[in-house]
Amino acid sequence: MAITASDILARVKAAEASVSDMRAEMEIESADKGNVSDMGAGYSDILQLQKAVISYKKPDKLRMDGFARGIKASFIQNGYKKLILAAMIRQTEDLRDKPGKRLDTLDFGFLSSRLWVDNTVTVVSTGKNGVVELKLDPKSGGADKRHDNIWVDPKTLRVTKREKYRGSGELRIRYVYSDFQTLAGKLPIATTSTMYGPSGDKLGTVTYRNVKANVGLADSLFSLSQR
To answer: What is the rounded CA–CA span in Å between residue 141 and residue 62?
Structure first.
């Protein structure tokens, strides 16, 4: 029988059950920061950093701490709220109806059941090699028709590619994932993500080192009241 999006969700829930949080060191090699200007706030946040530490706590807390142009900066996303801290800057934003600005676990290289909460997920096709192409339509954002397509091996839960499309149907950015490790021995995470623009120009490569799961991250790390 053909695999469904619900089948993959069930496998993701089983794999992520043993993962409560994750932390890793991130290094960014940006091919051309000028190419990032129209990719959306989330991608410029990532590629402005030279090095950073990324933190994730289930189900929807994400954080990046690093240096952008020599200035210490932190990007925190807690649910649908975002906080930017840098030098004299303290900026908050509600991203509930701005799916194009939100980060998710795919930006960190792995699947999570939260993706099914925020998106309507459907199977587009299944390749001869068994890799499934899924379409992710955001449940919020009003009439905005932007969406993502991702390619997943349902047996291993490795995501090999992600394409983000504008509401007009134009490709905005493509991720190619490689060099996988597993979180808590079950949930694969890509430790290399290479990003390309719509014309195939390379935007940058993100790599992770010292990837560790279940390190006991406190909720206060993702608090939106910190300064």
So the answer is: 20
What contacts 80, CB < 8 A, 6 or more positions away?
94, 95, 96, 102
What are 41-100's pLDDT values in tens digits? 444 555 566 688 999 999 999 999 988 777 888 999 999 999 988 888 899 999 988 888
Residue span of the structural domain in which 54 resides: 5-208
Which CATH number fits the domain that encloses residue 103? 2.50.20.10
Q: pTM for the full model?
A: 0.89
Composition of the chain by helix, strand, coil, percent to 5: 15, 50, 35
The answer for residues whose C-beta is within 8 angstroms of residue 156's C-beta and 6 or more apart is: 180, 188
The number of distinct structural domains making up the chain is 1
60 closest CA partner among 80, 43, 75, 84: 80
Query: Does 220 map to a domain?
Result: no
**Quick check: 56 and 22 in contact, CB under 8 A?**
yes
